[in-house]
User: Which sequence fits this backbone?
């Protein structure tokens, strides 16, 4: 009953084996002469002049998160729009309620200052 | 090509009426958000008032629904049978007690009351939907709704690193568990071809409405196992309990009080619907696992609780142990077992939130040390009424006669005996004997003479005092005259069993 999955198993074995073989071949055949520069995280980049871990403003993350929220909720309009004829008026009212709830959220975060860039 | 889809529309006003309590709480949530945005709810009283009014209205709506519930509404996804309404009562009572105990704590830790209550209500909506869900999808969405609000609430005390840690830990681990649950649901759907609980039951029971091989399919059993992991995590059953002490200790005390009862109640309601009804035909397959989980949970919860020094951690391990007792009732898989789960949560709402009222009062009076059991020393001399209330809750949690905890435990264990699972009942009784030690230790510490004699505690804040008295009244009332409430629980279980054609 599980026999139809055997090709998938063979494929994953092949894929894994290919990756492992490549790593093994490079490790075994290539020369390995480590030095300080080579072991640095960004070996081929610029020499760092100051520690790269600094504090930077993350204001945009709130905006990005809110965008995601409303974007995803906006997506749910599409299936609704397609079947709107079948849903008739009650379907329209339901979407109005949905939009109303969204709008309350929007008003709330606006008033709370989540959209102000400079604070 | 023109795409014409005609959808049969049979959502009627009665459908919306069947989720009226949930709608009322959602409305209260929106009102709180708007109030918080426009008239900055700096005054805790305003936010508390709106929250309490919402809960009261939802309670009235639920009372109305008790006699006019529908077995299935909204495209057979939600049920407003008495079982769901009973859990609505439990959730709303817990929310009301939480709203009463919160104001003094909110003032103590300076957080935004408007957002706090809005999130409590949002979470309550998720819980009520979870208790009412008769479709696996609605169970999952409701679980996400209640969890998302609780993640934020756990990390609500942003000034305290422990609270942030609790929020983050709960978020990571719990979303992982949600993934297990939804994966399991997907597999059960794959095996049976439906997400409706009633149809899963008929499919597995009579092989009707789905392929006859459904109950032989490995997909089904993998799915059931994954769902069990998901549910077990959410109600903190050993070995999925690791998050509980840390989250309960780190989260603000009102939040801990709320989630410790209501999350368990809502998830157990869905747990019963899925395991005792949808999956009842394959009980012999899941019983062994649930049996083992119940035993491990009772043993580990009670033994680890013995060495706790923090009151909130003690109550967390006590909560784990209680989840074990409730799991015994679920494993019994009979009418008495389901009745006892419903009754257990009503009792648990009073005694456990009551215990957290005391912790919240102690913390708002003495700061973070108020969580240490050692700081309860001499409480009988400093604040006799609060100490008396604590003693009642501890006796009830330990299961002494004449308290709600005794009746609840008695029902759970007798359900196990009735189902011929005497081993579970014996282990349950033995582990409750262990639990007497750590509950009574709290009472003993309170009875010891204070280090500085003659000092009185400041008076308990009025709202928290009211919450404590209601909880005491509920704990003792359910213990002495349980008949009325037991009758409600029995009716709720009869209603749901009738839907599934069980006696």
Assistant:
């Amino acid at each position: 009953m599980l026999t139809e999955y055997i090709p998938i198993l063979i494929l994953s074995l092949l894929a894994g084996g290919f990756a492992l073989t490549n790593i093994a071949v490079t490790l075994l055949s290539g020369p390995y002469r480590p030095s300080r520069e080579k072991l640095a995280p960004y070996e081929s980049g610029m020499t760092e002049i100051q520690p790269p871990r600094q504090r930077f403003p993350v204001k945009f993350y709130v905006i990005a998160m809110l965008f995601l929220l409303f974007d995803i909720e906006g997506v749910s309009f599409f299936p609704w729009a397609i079947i709107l004829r079948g849903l008739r008026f009650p379907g329209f009212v339901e979407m109005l309620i949905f939009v109303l709830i969204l709008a309350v959220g929007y008003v709330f975060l606006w008033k709370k200052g989540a959209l102000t860039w400079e604070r | 090509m023109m795409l014409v889809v005609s959808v049969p529309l049979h959502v009627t006003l009665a459908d919306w009426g069947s989720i009226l309590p949930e709608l009322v709480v959602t409305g209260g949530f929106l009102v709180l958000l708007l109030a918080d945005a426009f008239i900055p709810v700096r005054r805790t009283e305003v936010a508390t008032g709106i929250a309490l009014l919402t809960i009261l209205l939802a309670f009235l709506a639920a009372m109305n629904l008790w006699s006019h519930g529908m077995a299935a509404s909204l495209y057979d996804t939600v049920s407003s049978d008495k079982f769901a309404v009973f859990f609505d009562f439990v959730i709303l009572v817990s929310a009301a007690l939480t709203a009463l105990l919160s104001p003094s704590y909110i003032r103590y830790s300076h957080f935004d009351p408007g957002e706090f209550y809005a999130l409590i209500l949002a979470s309550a909506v998720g819980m009520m939907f979870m208790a009412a869900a008769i479709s696996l999808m609605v169970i999952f969405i409701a679980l996400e709704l209640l969890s998302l609000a609780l993640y934020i609430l756990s990390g609500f005390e942003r000034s305290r690193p422990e609270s942030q840690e609790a929020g983050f830990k709960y978020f990571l681990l719990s979303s992982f568990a949600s993934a297990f649950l939804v994966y399991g649901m997907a597999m059960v759907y794959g095996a049976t071809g439906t997400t409706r609980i009633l149809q899963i039951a008929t499919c597995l029971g009579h092989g009707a409405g789905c392929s006859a091989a459904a109950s032989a399919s490995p997909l089904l059993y993998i799915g059931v196992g994954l769902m069990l992991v998901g549910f077990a995590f959410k109600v903190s059953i050993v070995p999925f309990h690791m998050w509980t002490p840390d989250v309960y200790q780190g989260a603000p005390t009102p939040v801990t009080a709320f989630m410790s009862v209501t999350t368990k109640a809502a998830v157990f309601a869905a747990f019963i619907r899925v395991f005792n009804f949808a999956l009842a035909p394959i009980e012999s397959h899941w019983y062994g696992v649930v049996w083992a989980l119940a035993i491990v949970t009772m043993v580990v919860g009670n033994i680890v609780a013995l060495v706790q020094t923090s009151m909130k951690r003690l109550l967390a391990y006590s909560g784990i142990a209680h989840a074990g007792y409730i799991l015994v009732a679920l494993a019994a898989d009979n009418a008495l077992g389901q009745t006892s789960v419903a009754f257990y949560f009503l009792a648990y709402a009073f005694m456990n939130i009551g215990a957290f009222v005391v912790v919240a009062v102690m913390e708002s009076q003495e700061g973070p040390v108020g969580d240490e059991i050692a700081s309860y020393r001499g409480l009988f001399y400093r604040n006799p009424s609060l100490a008396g209330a604590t003693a009642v809750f501890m006796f009830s949690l330990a299961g002494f006669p004449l308290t709600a905890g005794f009746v609840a435990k008695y029902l759970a264990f007798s359900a196990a005996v009735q189902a011929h699972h005497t081993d579970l009942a014996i282990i349950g009784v033995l582990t409750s004997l262990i639990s007497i030690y750590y509950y009574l230790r709290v009472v003993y510490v309170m009875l010891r003479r204070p280090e500085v004699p003659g000092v009185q505690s400041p008076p308990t804040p009025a709202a928290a005092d009211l919450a404590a008295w209601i909880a005491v009244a509920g704990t003792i009332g359910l213990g002495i005259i349980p008949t009325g409430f037991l009758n409600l629980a029995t009716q709720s279980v009869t209603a749901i069993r009738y839907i599934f054609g069980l006696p």
In short: Residues 13-499 of chain B form one domain. Chain B has 20 helices and no strands. The two ends of chain B are 53 Å apart (CA to CA). The mean pLDDT of chain B is 91.
